């Protein structure tokens, strides 16, 4: 069984090695926009940085922030409710200009997030609620996510 699995994997890899990974296309998006605000500090509260998706989003935000000169602080909830609660408390204490909730359920942290809302700190999120967009829970301005049903259909 292992030999068959290995052989099939080797064959698939060999076949894919000759294929281009992505077709190059010209950028057709915006080429200009408003200047970024200056001297901003953002805290990313990550659900668990051992999760590849959460880590990837965190790295992307760090890259974008570096390009516009913003300060980023990453707090890892380490995969536990208590860790995420502590990270939100720490984010609040840092008095950042904004907080990104990254990869955990905002409803779980409703009580902690109420403190952020009371402090007037804007929040956005990635995969932190059941709805995509501006109907996010807990005072979150927008939740960037995927539709679970669409993902499951594509995966099937």
Q: How are the secondary structure elements laid out?
A:
Blueprint: H1 2-17, E1 41-46, H2 52-68, E2 71-76, H3 81-93, E3 98-102, H4 110-118, E4 123-126, E5 143-144, H5 148-155
Parallel strand pairs: 1-2, 1-3, 3-4, 4-5
Please write the CATH class name: Alpha Beta
- CATH level-four homologous superfamily name: Response regulator
CATH architecture assignment name? 3-Layer(aba) Sandwich
- pLDDT under 50 segments (min length 5)? 1-19
Main structural class: alpha/beta
The biggest beta sheet reads: 5 strands, parallel
> Which percent range describes the beta-strand content?
5-15%
What is the number of independent domains?
A: 1
Work out the number of β strands.
Answer: 5
* Helix-strand topology string: HEHEHEHEEH
Mean pLDDT across every amino acid position: 85
Rg, Cα atoms, Å:
20 Å
Q: In what order do the strands lie side by side in the largest sheet?
A: 2-1-3-4-5
Helix content: 40-55%
Shape: globular
């Amino acid at each position: 069984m292992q030999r068959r699995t290995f052989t099939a994997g080797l064959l698939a890899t060999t076949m894919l090695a000759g294929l281009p990974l992505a077709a190059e296309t010209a950028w057709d998006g915006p080429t200009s926009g408003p200047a970024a605000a200056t001297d901003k500090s953002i805290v990313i509260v990550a659900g668990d940085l051992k999760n590849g998706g959460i880590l990837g989003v965190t790295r992307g935000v760090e890259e974008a922030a570096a390009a516009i000169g913003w300060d980023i602080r990453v707090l890892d909830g380490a995969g536990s409710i208590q860790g995420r609660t502590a990270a939100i408390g720490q984010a609040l204490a840092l008095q950042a200009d904004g907080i990104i909730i990254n990869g955990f359920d905002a409803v779980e942290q409703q009580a902690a997030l109420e403190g952020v809302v009371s402090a007037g700190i804007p929040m956005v999120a990635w995969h932190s609620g059941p709805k995509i967009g501006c109907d996010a829970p807990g005072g979150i301005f927008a939740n960037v996510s995927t539709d679970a049903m669409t993902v499951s259909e594509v995966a099937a």
